[in-house]
Amino acid sequence: MRLVVLGSTGSIGRQALEVARWRGYRVVGLAAGRNLEVLSEQIALFKPLLVAAEEELHPELKARFPWLRLGTPEEVAALEAEAAVAAIPGLAGLDPTRAAVRTGKRVALANKESMVAAGPLLWKEAEAAGAEILPVDSEHSALFQALLGEPREDVAELILTASGGPFLDSPQDLSEVTPEMALRHPRWRMGPKVTVDSATLFNKGLEVLEAKELFRFPLERIKVLVHPQAYVHGLVRFQDGSLKASLGPTDMRLPIQYALTHPRRPETPLRDLPLPGRLDFLPPNLERFPALALAYEAGKRGGVFQVALSAADEVAVERFLKGEIRFTDIPRILEKVLSQTPSLPLSWENLYQVDAWAKEVAKE
Ligand SMILES: NC(=O)C1=CN([C@@H]2O[C@H](COP(=O)(O)OP(=O)(O)OC[C@H]3O[C@@H](n4cnc5c(N)ncnc54)[C@H](OP(=O)(O)O)[C@@H]3O)[C@@H](O)[C@H]2O)C=CC1
Ligand SMILES: CC(=O)[C@@H](O)[C@H](O)COP(=O)(O)O
Ligand SMILES: [Mn+2]
C-alpha cells in the first residue's frame, strides 16, 4: 500500500509510520510543520516522493536531501496513494484532509476538528470522490467496530468513554492548574492540544460532535461515561438492552492500523498484553468540567456553532499553554464565543469565515 502521512512528526504521525514499517507500506508523502530533526530522520528512512514543511526549513532540507521534492500539505495529501493518515491538529488539518478526500483515498482520520467543523461538507466530497473516511480516534474506532453488521434502527445509544483526565479525582483547584499539570495525561501520550482538551474534558465534547458527524447519529443519543482505565474505548447500546464494546490497550497504533487495514486485523506486537484487573464507569461531572456541556450546546445548534466552538478552543488552549490565561478561562472563552456566534448555514465559505471570526474573538 502507498501511504501519505499528514502531521508525520507528531504523536499520531510517528505511530502511523511505525505501523507503516510493521506492514511494509510504501510511504510516498510526508507533511509536517517545523520539527527538522524528526522529519529528516523520516525522510532518510522512507525516501518519500514529496514532503511538506514550514518554509523556514526548506533550505536545510534541500541541503540534507538534494533529491527531495517539496510541496504543500495539500499536494502531499493529493499524491497517488491508497490511503492518507490525517493527523494535523485543528482547522489547519482541514484543507489537507479535504485534499486527501477529494482524491478518493481511504482517509484514516485522526484530525477530529475537521469532522466537527465540516462533517456534512466532507462527507459530500467523500461520496463524490468515492473516498472512505475511517476513524483513528480511539473511541470512534471502537464505535465503528461495534457498529459493524448492525442495522442502524437497532442502535439505541453510542457511548464514548473518557479517561477523566489528570484532575478526575484530585481536589485540585482548577483555576490554579499550570500547563505542566494539564499536560500530564494519566493514560495517553499525545500532542499538547489534545492533552489539554482531555484535561478540560473538551476533548470528549469534540468527540461527541465528531461521533455525531462521523456516524451521522442524533446528538441526544450520544453519551459519555468516565472510565479511568481507558481500556474500553466505546460502547454501543442496542434497543434490546444489550451492549457491544471494543476494548484494547491504550496504544494508538491499534486504531491507526485498523483504519488502514479494515476489515482485516493483521498481527502486531501488542497481541498478548494482559487485561486490567477492574473496569469502572461513572458519569462525567459537568459542573467541574463545563466545556463538555458547551459542546452539547453547540451540537444542538450544529453547523457553524461547532466550527466556532472548536476554533475558540484552539486559541484558548494556545493561550493557556503560553501562560496568558488560566485553565478555568478556557471554558469561559468557549462560552463567550458560542454566545456571540452568528446563525449561518454551513457552507465552506461560512466555515472559513466563522473560524477566523471565532479565533479573533477568542484572542480578545
Ligand atoms: N495523539 C493522540 O493519541 C491522538 C490524537 N488525535 C488527534 O490527532 C490529531 C493530531 O494529534 P497529535 O498527533 O497528538 O498532535 P501533535 O501535536 O503531536 O502533532 C501535530 C503534527 O502536525 C504537524 N503540524 C502542525 N501544524 C501544522 C501545519 N499548519 N501544517 C503542517 N503540519 C502541521 C506537526 O508538525 P511539527 O511537529 O513538525 O511542527 C506535527 O507533525 C489531532 O487532531 C488530535 O486531536 C486523536 C486521538 C488520539
Ligand atoms: C487516545 C484518544 O483517542 C484520545 O482522544 C483520548 O480519548 C484522550 O483521552 P480522554 O478520554 O482523557 O479525553
Ligand atoms: Mn479520543
From TrEMBL:
Binding site for NADPH: T9, G10, S11, I12, G33, R34, N35, N111, E113, G191
Cofactor(s) it depends on: Mg(2+); Mn(2+)
Tagged with keyword DNA-binding: no
Catalytic activity: 2-C-methyl-D-erythritol 4-phosphate + NADP(+) = 1-deoxy-D-xylulose 5-phosphate + NADPH + H(+)
Entries under SUPFAM superfamilies matching the protein: 1-deoxy-D-xylulose-5-phosphate reductoisomerase, C-terminal domain, Glyceraldehyde-3-phosphate dehydrogenase-like, C-terminal domain, NAD(P)-binding Rossmann-fold domains
Function: Catalyzes the NADPH-dependent rearrangement and reduction of 1-deoxy-D-xylulose-5-phosphate (DXP) to 2-C-methyl-D-erythritol 4-phosphate (MEP).
One BP term from GO: isopentenyl diphosphate biosynthetic process, methylerythritol 4-phosphate pathway involved in terpenoid biosynthetic process
Keyword line: Isoprene biosynthesis, Magnesium, Manganese, Metal-binding, NADP, Oxidoreductase
Lineage: Bacteria, Thermotogati, Deinococcota, Deinococci, Thermales
GO molecular function: 1-deoxy-D-xylulose-5-phosphate reductoisomerase activity; manganese ion binding; NADPH binding
Binding positions (1-deoxy-D-xylulose 5-phosphate): K112, S138, E139, S163, H185, S198, N203, K204, E207
Residue runs in coiled coils: none
HAMAP family: DXP_reductoisom
Keyword Manganese on entry: yes
Gene3D superfamilies to which the protein is assigned, alphabetical: 1.10.1740.10, NAD(P)-binding Rossmann-like Domain
Amino-acid positions noted as binding Mn(2+) in the UniProt annotation, renumbered to this chain: D137, E139, E207
The enzyme's E.C. designation: 1.1.1.267
Name of this chain's protein: 1-deoxy-D-xylulose 5-phosphate reductoisomerase
Family: Belongs to the DXR family.
Domain (1-deoxy-D-xylulose 5-phosphate reductoisomerase C-terminal) ranges: 133-215
InterPro entries on file: DXP_reductoisomerase, DXP_reductoisomerase_C, DXP_reductoisomerase_N, DXPR_C, DXPR_C_sf, NAD(P)-bd_dom_sf
